[in-house]
Amino acid sequence: MPDRPDTIAVTIAEPFEVALRMVRRSLAMEGLRVPAEIDIAARTLQELGVELMNSVTLFVDTPALLLEAVRADPAGALTIPQSLALYSRGETTRAVFRLQPAYGPARELQIRMTAALERIGSREIPLKAAS
C-alpha cells in the first residue's frame, strides 16, 4: 500500500514472526482481540501456487466496542472489526491499517490500535502529494 494520509503505518524493527507476536501482545495490552485472521502468504501459495513474502491480515476488535457499534446501528459491524495488515520487509515488519471516517466505538478502536502499534514501532509519516 502506498503511503497515504488515510493510513496509520508503523515499522517494527523485528523480523515478521517476532513482530507478529509483539503486535498481538500490544493489542492485548489495549484490551483488543483478534477474532479472525487471514495468512495471505499461505493462502496464495495453497490456492494459487504463488509464493509471497510473509503477510497476514488481522481483524481487530473488542466485544464491547462491537456491541456498542451494532446497538447504535446494525451496519456498525462494517467498521468493527478493523483490518490490520502486517507484512515482512526483510529484517523489519510493517503494520498498516486504514483510517475510516469513524465516530464512537469505531473511533475508539482506531485510537487503541494506534496506541498499541506506536508502543512497539516507529510511526511513518505519509508523504504529501506533490501539488
Brief account:
With 131 residues, the chain is an alpha+beta fold. The chain has helices spanning 16-29, 40-48, 63-72, 104-120; strands spanning 7-12, 33-39, 55-61, 82-89, 92-98, 122-123.
How does this structure look, described?
There is one protein chain. Helix 3 (about 65-70) packs antiparallel against helix 4. Helix content is about 40%, strand content about 30%. The chain has a single domain (about 10-115), classed as TT1751-like domain (TATA-Binding Protein), CATH 3.30.310.70. The model has no long low-confidence stretch (mean pLDDT about 90). By secondary structure, it is α+β, with helices and mostly antiparallel strands.
Summarize this structure as a short list of keywords or feature phrases:
131 residues; alpha+beta; TATA-Binding Protein; six-stranded antiparallel beta sheet; 6 strands; 28% strand; globular
Question: Helix and strand layout, with pairings?
Answer:
Elements: E1 7-12, H1 16-29, E2 33-39, H2 40-48, E3 55-61, H3 63-72, E4 82-89, E5 92-98, H4 104-120, E6 122-123
